[in-house]
Design brief:
The structure holds two protein chains of two kinds. By secondary structure, chain A is an all-alpha fold. Chain A has one domain. Chain A has three helices and no strands. In chain A, helix 1 packs antiparallel against helix 3. The model of chain A has no long low-confidence stretch (mean pLDDT 85). In chain B, strands 11, 13, 14, 16, 18, 19, 20, 21, 22, 23, 24 and 25 form a twelve-stranded antiparallel beta sheet that branches. In chain B, strands 1, 2, 3, 5, 28, 29 and 32 form a seven-stranded antiparallel beta sheet that branches. In chain B, strands 4, 6, 7, 30 and 31 form a five-stranded antiparallel beta sheet that branches. In chain B, strand 28 and strand 29 form a beta hairpin. Among the domains of chain B are: 157 residues, Jelly Rolls; 84 residues. Chain B is mainly beta. The chains are: A mainly alpha, B mainly beta. At the A-B interface, helix 1, helix 2 and helix 3 of A face helix 1 of B.
Amino acid sequence: MNFKFLKKEKIITEVWYFVSLLILIVFILELLFPSLVLIYLNPLFFLVLWIILSVYLFVRN
Amino acid sequence: MKLKKLRIFFLFLSFLFLLLFVYLKVSPLGTWECKSRFNNFNHLFLGRGCFSQPSPNDRFLDERNIKMVGDPLYFSLYSPRNFDELELEIKFKPNLDKNTPVIEAGLLVDKDLWHYQLKPVYNYWLEDYSSDWQELSLKDNVEELLKENCQEISINYCLAQYNLDQTDRNILPEFFIEREEKNINHDLALRGHHSFYVYIKNDLDLKLEAKDLNINQDRSPITVDVYTNNDLIYTESLADDRPEKEGSGEESDYFDLDLSLASLPEGVYRVDLKANDDIVFNNLSVSSSILSWRRRLWLHESSEQNIDLVTDAKALQIKVQDPIAYQSLKFSDQDLVLDELYRQYEAILGHEYNDLTYDISLKRGGLLLEGPGVFALNEDELFNPNYSRLDRFYEERAKFVLTDYEKVKRLDDGYFLAKLKFNLAGVYREDNKYNFIISIPGLRVKDESDNFVEIKNIKANFSGKTLIEKINEF
């Protein structure tokens, strides 16, 4: 990604990476240990957060 | 530089996140606990908890808590791995009366027979009505007390029981002293699992025939279990390796089942015939002076015409399993017209009925009969080793109650807390989930009464072997 952001955007980009990684981990965990993650967390939350961040970054680009 | 630190921090958090779930899955300390989240099902961040949303939907109102208005409610209970024991804490508020006095909860043990291991949660009679009953321990001379106080009325009305199934009651020798050893032959065709009591003087010789209807897709093995005092003393299984295809509807020929146990101590034994609904049992022969079917009798439509039965139960539930079984049934002096398939008919005899046994007359089979007692073909063969039960059919006459029951804890916020312990050995588990049930017999959605139970939450504490113990096993 070739974003020319201010510091705030850079932090948000890092958060975006982090949330993306968490979604990947949740996906892998769900494959490895079905249902366990869903007991504790709602993956929809991460997905919504990821979409919001993506839209924000896209608009700011 | 700062961004790099932030990235390392996030990576570290991600690693911790992964590690946490691996830890939860392995549960190295041998314990795992979780809580229901019935009122958080639509929560954006939180998960759904280890208990699923109950089903069927029409038996509860999904308010702040689960308001149970119909019986029973089914849940699934997740556990990350196998454990040995489960302790459940159910926080609830009952609004029940003598028509729905019992709350029980349990886990599915046998998937084929749909059999649940139930434990008492709440008993209205023992909680709200027990002030007249003095609590005795086994050290007290219970036998002497019964002799002194139960002379004038039948012991079945003097003594009640709950959460016990005993076959060693003290009056047995007196009851059987005049009875000769004999052989009982029945030609009733019975479908599915059944359980019956026999009285054995010395040897148990059991012979019966069975056939497989092959209606269901599952295989139909048969297991015969023999119990005394609730202890399993013998079990034998017959696998389903019959050539007929499952689900084809092609019936197998009748095959023989023989069981012979020599030199048994004299007494009452319970025999369980475990099989799914595809199996029809017939031509039963047993060396016993009694043969009493416990609580349930599913007469196959091929059963003989005009069947006369006796029961000690004052309530009878009937379900028509086949349209050819539509008929008029007589229970004591009450007539019931059975003209609807699978509807649960119920006949209850009131306080004015004081006999020890009641007649049931059927025109043909195809009916499932259930009642809080035993069924037999005649009075001579009828014997129930259990006393009347403290359930919705209890008649408020007992001077004494035998029970294994712990009163629920009343909390300051008005809720009740019941603790149940389950041994998970042999409990059915599929896809990391147990099948959990809450049952309140008699609670009906379309009832006029306003009975319900509010379930605030359920906490599950699993315990079992630690990771080190598991490694040592290998």
